[in-house]
Amino acid sequence: MSRKLTLLLALFLLAGLMVSGAGAQDEGTVVIFDGDPVILGVATIRSGEGLVPLGDDILYGVELAIDARPTVTVDGVEFTVELDVQDDQCSDVGGQAVANYFISQPETVAIVGPTCSSACRAAGPILDRAGFTSISSSCTALDLTDEETGFTSFNRTTANDGAQSEQAANFIYNVLGITKVAAIHDGSPYGEGLVTGLTATFTELGGEVVFADAITVGETNFRNILTSIAETDAEMIYFGGFPAEAARLLEQRLDVGLGELPFMGADGLYTPEVVTLAGPAAEGMYTSSPAPAESDALASFIASYEEKYGIQPTAAFHSYAYDAANILLDGIEAVGTIDDEGSLVVDRAALAEFVRSYGADEAIVGLSGVLACNGSGECALGGIGFFQIENGQFLRLPDVVAETEE
């Protein structure tokens, strides 16, 4: 055999290896061979102090969606669904890493996640360029769907920071009767966005933010900043951030004589992990969070969650993650086709269009609430709930904010 022929044969064999297995595709499509699984990526938190319960809640929501719907069927051909779970670390570095990982896996059809706005912001340009669709159950920063700064790959099933911070300001001012707030955030897009939005609405209502500052994630001593707050006439501390830093703020406020000052956060603090880390210092803390309305379907889901994992939900995101997974499965069944070899072919652009317009013509009731995607990635029409820790448990407060605005 000539050297040239040997080289051609080697190249032919290499090309064959490259196109064998699930995910062989032309640019812009995913091809799943008959007998191979449909792969959904899950980008969520798998590491970090106080953060893993948030990631667990998202993962459990997706897993329960797949338990209930373990296959997709296109033109009578059934394919099993499997998950590829990666750690987004709730950070820009983690978001960039998982985005690069998933686009290097051509068999990945779409992604549930990432978890935190910093991760979604870093992942967005990478997923945009690759034409990958993602649906986050928890990234809430406004810029992610903004006309100028948003991403074509990004969608979310949860309410954004604008809705949450506006209603939180109404709750603080109109329901609690507090007119002066000290505002702290953790420097993340999530935390800063919440504080910025709350400040704007709170001052419009007539309230005053008498102290504003930022901390750094990973710090452990906040006594100086709390001492500065003690020198103001603040009636509440509002914190935009996550459990580890919140727990230390809650504990250390006792050291500077602020034990009676109410403390409030948002959905990043709506997790039993705050109580685990802060103990009795968390008693009385308020949080806001996207919160689905009570329903038989939700009650059944929570029962399944508790039966499978042996615990109550560890955060607020389970139902939103469940809906995100089902939207992607609906999309695969809607736009997928079967080729002459019996393989499932999913056009990425068609899937993106399906998700962007999901429920647009007629809103769809999901587990988390009403879903109607508006073309820019906003899909949630659900409301915001308010909670307070009582005897170590989150107690949902009456939904009174809407009444104060009428």
Annotation keywords:
seven-stranded mixed β-sheet; disordered C terminus; 18 strands; about 400 residues; disordered N terminus; alpha/beta; six-stranded mixed β-sheet
Largest sheet report: 7 strands, mixed
What would you call the shape? elongated
Structural class: alpha/beta
Residue share in β-strands = 15-25%
What percent of residues adopt helix (DSSP H or I)? Answer: 25-40%
In angstroms, what separates the terminal alpha carbons? 86 Å
Q: Total number of β-strand segments?
A: 18
Low-pLDDT parts are: 1-25, 401-406
Radius of gyration computed on alpha carbons: 23 Å
How would you describe this protein?
The chain has 406 residues and is of the alpha/beta class. The chain has helices spanning 3-19, 52-68, 92-103, 117-130, 161-175, 189-205, 223-230, 243-252, 272-278, 296-309, 318-335, 348-356, 401-404, and strands at residues 29-32, 38-44, 71-74, 77-87, 108-112, 134-136, 154-156, 180-185, 208-214, 236-240, 263-265, 286-290, 337-338, 344-347, 364-365, 370-371, 384-390, 393-396. A 7-stranded mixed sheet has the order 9-8-10-11-12-17-18, with helices on both faces. Strand 17 and strand 18 (393-396) form a beta hairpin. The protein starts with a helix and ends with a helix. The model is unreliable at 1-25 and 401-406 (pLDDT under 50).
Quick summary:
With 406 residues, this protein is an alpha/beta fold. Helices cover 40% and strands 21% of the residues.
